[in-house]
Design a protein that fits this description.
The complex is a heterodimer of chains A (601) and B (225). With 601 residues, chain A is of the alpha+beta class. Chain A has helices spanning 27-33, 36-47, 110-116, 154-165, 177-180, 201-207, 226-240, 245-253, 257-265, 286-292, 327-332, 342-355, 359-374, 393-404, 410-413, 417-424, 449-457, 471-483, 499-507, 513-534, 546-549, 564-578, 589-594, and strands at 9-14, 20-24, 61-64, 79-84, 101-106, 121-125, 132-137, 140-145, 171-174, 188-190, 194-196, 210-216, 294-298, 308-315, 318-323, 434-435, 438-439. A 6-stranded mixed β-sheet of chain A has the order 2-1-6-3-4-5. A 4-stranded mixed β-sheet of chain A has the order 8-7-12-9. In chain A, strands 13-14-15 form a 3-stranded antiparallel β-sheet. Helix content of chain B is 21%, strand content 19%. Chain B is built from 6 helices and 11 strands. In chain B, the strands form 5 sheets. Chain B has a 3-stranded antiparallel β-sheet with strand order 1-2-11. In chain B, strands 3-4 form a two-stranded antiparallel ribbon. Chain B has a two-stranded antiparallel sheet with strand order 5-6. The termini of chain B are far apart. Classes of the chains: A alpha+beta (601), B alpha+beta (225).
């Protein structure tokens, strides 16, 4: 019998052979890597040969739940998609297909339902010779033809697929045209609104000819100490139901509240990261959305914060019913492109999700091309005649469409800013805002650079805003992503309702603070060792040149810039704090042993 | 915690103007048209009312329902079970365009499910296998007498919201609202106060109950497309 709180089972589907297996997870892996992101990293490290082509049938696409997922622990519904990234590459390639691992997590109901069906994770390998979807109802699993759905946008697919599945409450996730067309920055979508957005997960799914997964289940794993678990659950629910300002702020604006606050603080990506403040931010902020776009709040499983907002836009770009701007989507397709037309922004977000593309990367890429145009490094001919100026909604829509269908300029632009800069040349890599090939997200670097530069430089999937700016934050994020908990609610889980107490009640294992933190460090470090094995070194832990050369010209933080020496110094300190070699960035052997991952030595 | 989240902008009257009963009802949104009085034509009943504008689809109601109504014995103590939503009496249905519709037993005054039960009424209590419990007005099944014919589930599906689902093994009806002994947990724990346990006229119109129909009404209301 497996550790309580888990079924101890993986569902493994090989789309080349059609073989469907249910395999056991060793208890030692559960104890060391918890689930979700951590267990995914361990499986990827164990099973994937170094240098594996991320788009080959050998790559493993994992949908991992964590030990909290499926239980009604508030805001703990996350599904972590783990795979080898089609987005990243090191400066010096050890293998032709050297890349980092990728992890992207999504909220909603998919992870809980996968758990109810009896699995702690779903592993997809191989490649189908025709488009298929995987249908799971408890122990019954089948591979079904998806030919009729191939080519559908995610919104239409969501509607039609679920109506055809008939009565019942299947949960699903799927790719759109971007994933089907093997656009490297494609993502995986669920409920037509939520995304495992980053790191090219949808491209890997498309490479397997897998359109969708639908799941329905009826079970739930036992917990070890139900009485204690119930007591904790009651306390946690109570702490959210206080309806204090923190709760009400999330409900009122979700992450979109940060659109105005981040702009004011000079931490927003504006004009391809040239500025940290957007003068027209009010036009796309929470208040504007409340007034013009948002109709209702909606929530992930057992979440009381309901940060998501159903929007309804009607205007020059037609009618869209869609999840309205969040901080990332609103910044990357708004402020970063100098777009303040709310209907235009809403249409861009709708299209991005409908194509199934990572809005962060595509927004960053469009911003890069806008800057290249402005600097005269490219002209409209390079862009198939698109007149790509700052703030141009129509041009951005058209460029995004071309990227998602790899049409004309889209064939190059779909690979992101690192590849584009190589082709454009003329020093354009200076303002290609990526780390390891993965584009930066909506938080700008120069203000609070000691934290943000380390956050982006050292993230294991390439630039990642969720990474954390020091080792303890990073380890904390690993734990959260491995349990299946949501970042936004993490600050509630303190003191007597700390994650580790809940985990102890569920598993029956006594998680001390020390052991718990060590697990976080272990997870981060095995990811690092995966990347190190692929050839990633200190030189890859850098930030774009622009941050050392460009001063903000606008707002309260006018003049902000990153000091190169300070960054180097902070990176040294970071490696020291982790016990990593400062020249190579490799974790030292004694650290690997201490973390019980001596097999990576 | 009654009414804590009915904000300043929103009076209780406004709330009542856009509620519906149980799984539904014709009285929705602006078409508010009832008054709760002691001399209502057929009296007053208490049941779960849903404010579809507020529901966020978080399904906390499902968890707490499943926990309370599936208690387990641990060391001689009866405590809440795990919140497996598959065992919940209330269900939230999600639709695209975005809307979530909680659906729960409406405790219908004329109870087509009870009417459909073919088991002979008990000569002493007058109860069929499926009967209305006088204490809380809930619909209860007696598993000792139930023959698993599923007539109740069919009646509910044909005439009301289709809340009753037969147990796949025994055929016994499941998912009738228990009102949790008078303190409905779904109401107590709904983070958005979208659920209320309130009095309503017993002769309320319950024709338009299916989650799909309610979803369409809400989609028209919110998105007007």
């Amino acid at each position: 019998m497996s550790t309580k709180g888990y079924f101890g089972k993986l569902l493994e589907v090989n789309l080349s052979t059609g073989k469907i297996e249910k395999t056991s997870i060793p208890d030692s892996d559960i104890h060391n890597f918890l689930g979700g992101r951590g267990l995914g990293a361990k499986i990827l490290y164990d099973r994937l040969k170094p240098g594996t082509d991320p788009l080959s049938p050998d790559n493993i696409l994992m949908f991992m739940t964590g030990p909290f997922v499926g239980y009604p622990i508030p805001s703990s519904s996350r599904t972590c998609v783990v795979t080898k990234s089609p987005r990243t590459s090191p400066v010096e390639k050890k293998y032709e297909h050297s890349s980092t691992l990728s992890y992207a997590n999504m909220g909603g109901f998919f992870g809980p339902e996968l758990k109810y069906a009896g699995y702690d994770g779903l592993l997809v390998t191989g490649k189908s010779d025709k488009p298929v979807y995987i249908l799971i109802e408890d122990e019954n699993v089948s591979i079904e033809d998806a030919g009729e759905y191939w080519g559908m946008g995610t919104d239409e697919f969501d509607k039609i697929f679920h109506s055809r599945l008939g009565e019942g409450r299947y949960e699903s996730c799927y790719i759109g045209p971007a994933g089907e067309n093997l656009v490297p920055m494609a993502c995986i979508i669920n409920t037509a609104a939520r995304a495992a957005g980053r790191g090219g997960t949808g491209c890997v799914m498309g490479s397997k000819n897998l359109k969708a997964i639908a799941v329905k289940g009826s079970g739930i794993p036992e917990v070890a100490d139900l009485k204690k678990y119930n007591e904790l659950l009651k306390k946690i629910r109570g702490s959210f139901m206080e309806k204090n300002d923190r709760v009400m702020d999330w409900r009122y604006g979700g992450t979109a509240n940060a659109l105005t606050s981040s702009s004011g603080n000079g931490t927003q990506a504006v004009k391809n990261y040239s500025e940290g403040t957007f003068s027209e931010i009010e036009k796309i902020g929470t208040e504007a959305n409340r007034k013009k776009i948002w109709k209702r709040d909606f929530a992930c499983y057992s979440c009381q914060l309901a940060c998501k907002k159903s929007g309804f836009a009607k205007g020059a770009y037609g009618v869209q019913v869609h999840d309205g701007p969040e901080y990332e989507t609103g910044t990357m397709l708004g402020a970063n492109l100098m777009i303040s037309d709310l209907n235009g922004l809403h249409k861009l977000i709708y299209d991005g999700d409908d194509y199934g593309i990572d809005i962060i990367s595509v927004g960053n890429t469009i911003g890069f091309l806008m800057e290249a145009m402005e600097r005269g490094h490219i002209d409209a001919d390079f862009l198939d005649g698109i007149d790509l100026g700052w703030g141009n909604v129509e041009a951005s829509l058209e460029l995004m469409r071309k990227i998602c269908y790899r049409e004309g300029i889209g064939e190059i632009a779909c690979s992101g800013v690192k590849e584009l800069a190589k082709i454009i040349g003329k020093g354009s890599d200076e303002y290609a805002i990526h780390v390891k090939g993965h584009e930066l997200a909506a938080w700008n670097v120069p203000v609070n650079s000691s934290s943000w530069a380390i956050t982006y430089a050292t993230s294991n999937r390439g630039a990642c805003h969720m990474n954390g700016g020091n080792s303890s934050r990073q380890d904390g994020a690993c734990l959260r992503d491995s349990l299946g908990a949501c970042s936004f609610a993490s600050s509630w889980y303190r003191n007597d309702i700390h994650y580790r107490h809940i985990l102890s009640s569920i598993t029956g294992l006594e998680w001390t603070e020390e052991e718990f933190n060590k697990a976080g460090s272990r997870i981060f470090t095995i990811e690092k060792m995966f990347n190190y094995r692929e050839g990633f070194r200190r030189i890859d832990d850098s930030i774009p040149e622009k941050f050392f050369n460009n001063k903000f010209t606008y707002g309260d933080h006018k003049g902000a810039i990153v000091d190169r020496e300070e960054f180097t110094d902070n990176l040294d300190k970071y490696y020291e704090s982790r016990g990593w070699n400062k020249t190579t960035s490799r974790p030292e052997d004694d650290i690997l042993q201490e973390l019980n991952i001596e097999f990576t030595v | 915690m009654e009414d804590i989240f009915i904000t300043k902008k929103q009076s209780r009257r406004h709330f009542l103007s856009r509620i519906s009963y149980g799984a539904g009802g014709l009285i929705l949104l602006g078409s508010y048209g009832f008054t709760i009085t002691k001399d209502s034509r057929t009296g007053v009943i208490r049941a779960i009312a849903v404010d579809f504008e507020k529901c966020t689809g978080c399904r906390t109601c499902e968890s707490v329902c499943a926990e309370y109504n599936n208690k387990v014995m641990v060391n001689g103590e009866l405590i809440n079970g795990l919140g497996n939503p598959a065992k919940s009496n209330i269900r939230v249905y999600h639709f695209n365009p975005d809307i979530d519709i909680p659906s729960t037993c409406a405790l219908c005054d004329d109870a087509p499910c009870v009417e459909a039960c073919p088991v002979e009424p008990d000569p002493v209590t007058g109860r069929r296998a499926l009967y209305r419990d006088e204490k809380l007005n809930t619909i209860v099944n007696d598993p000792e007498r139930c023959i698993g014919c599923q007539s109740c589930a069919i009646a509910c599906a044909q005439k009301r919201a289709g809340v009753i689902h037969p147990d796949p093994e025994t055929g016994n009806p499941r998912f009738m609202c228990t009102l949790c002994g008078g303190d409905p947990q779904c109401v107590k724990y709904c983070p958005y106060d979208a659920l209320k346990y309130i009095e309503m006229p017993a002769d309320r119109d319950l024709n338009n109950l299916a989650p799909e129909k309610l979803a369409q009404i809400m989609i028209d209301k919110f998105y007007n497309v």
